UniProtKB/TrEMBL annotation:
Name of the featured protein: ZC12D ribonuclease
Organism this protein belongs to: Chordeiles acutipennis
Any single Pfam family the record assigns to this protein: RNase_Zc3h12a
Keywords: Endonuclease, Hydrolase, Magnesium, Metal-binding, Nuclease, Zinc, Zinc-finger
Gene name, Swiss-Prot/TrEMBL: Zc3h12d
PANTHER family named in the record: N4BP1-RELATED, RIBONUCLEASE ZC3H12D-RELATED
Family affiliation: Belongs to the ZC3H12 family.
Length: 309
């Protein structure tokens, strides 16, 4: 009898411990209705109902796509960076390394400087693309400095090698610029390079606009990575706004009036007057008229007081 009741209530979804506890209190000969009432009184829900009432965790989907793209899976992307307000960074490793090495040496230390600069700003998603043949020992025609930095960045899941192989003694290299632009475009990020990618601009009109608006150029000054403060020109956004997903609006700066207290424009003056921050900005003529009206009203009140007995 005990086993039959236990099996019956287990099929309803109740736990064995709760059923045994109720049967001990009511006795083994208790009716099924009484056992069910006691289980309901204890507030125990069937396990199937508890799993249905718990809301399933929401899954964030990348903007512009219905599912996770194969490129993001290959790069080991983490969805936690989607809540970050800073844009993803995609670095042209060959361009940065050759720029730091004065176009003579592939300087891996330049890549490290660029990565550290964006990491210090708080960027979570940073990817560097370098051809696979850079892992080979350096040669006289292609010297490499500080090659161990590439191994360290690869260990941190920051560096990505683009494919390359040898066919009959000749090296076949995939076009790494295409990887850089494609990943930056899909991630809605920023490309760090001094290359204009003109061939890719002519290939895809959407890439053309993206490269024009999201290309961040740079300079190295005494082993210091320095991007410009105005990436899109003097009249464009600032560097902070350029690297943010939400544009940072500049604070309004009021220019003081060059005429100071001698200004006669009044409320029509477009400049700031510190001497009258809360007063209505009236012209000189309007101020005189207002003073005359006040004096006339005061004079009329005095005449009425004098006429009163």
């Amino acid at each position: 009898v005990h086993q039959s009741k236990l099996d019956f209530f287990c099929k309803l979804g109740y736990g064995k411990q709760d059923i045994c506890k109720v049967l001990e209190n009511l006795g083994q000969e208790a009716l099924e209705d009484d056992v069910l009432k006691e289980l309901i009184r204890m507030g125990r829900k069937p396990q199937a109902l508890e799993s249905q009432t718990q809301p399933s965790p929401l899954k964030l989907v990348a903007r512009g796509s219905c599912s996770t793209s194969p490129v993001s899976n290959w790069l080991g992307e983490d969805d936690s960076d989607s809540s970050n307000h800073l844009r993803p960074i995609v670095i042209d490793g060959s361009n940065v390394a050759m720029s730091h090495g004065n176009k003579e040496v592939f300087s891996c230390w330049g890549i490290q400087l660029a990565v550290d600069w964006f990491r210090d700003r708080g960027h979570k998603y940073i990817k560097v693309f370098v051809p696979l043949w850079r892992k080979e020992p350096p040669r006289q025609d292609s010297p490499i400095a500080d090659q161990h930095i590439l191994e360290e960045l690869e260990r941190q899941s920051i560096l990505v090698y683009t494919p390359s192989r040898k066919v009959k003694g000749k090296r076949v290299v995939c076009y790494d610029d295409r990887y850089i632009v494609k990943v930056a475009y899909e991630k809605d990020g920023v490309i760090v390079s001094n290359d204009y990618y003109r061939d890719l601009q002519n290939e895809n009109p959407e890439w053309k606009w993206f490269i024009e608006q999201r290309l961040l150029m740079y300079s190295f000054v005494s082993n210091r990575f320095m991007p410009p403060d105005d990436p899109l020109g003097r009249h464009g956004p600032t560097l902070n706004s350029f690297l943010s997903k939400k544009p940072v609006l500049p604070e309004p700066k009021w220019q003081p009036c060059p005429y100071g207290k001698k200004c006669t424009y009044g409320n029509k003056c477009k400049f700031y007057h510190p001497e009258r921050p809360q007063q209505a900005q009236l012209s000189v003529a309007d101020e005189l008229r207002a003073k005359i009206r006040v004096q006339l009203s005061l004079g009329k009140e005095e005449e009425k007081r004098n006429c009163l007995p």
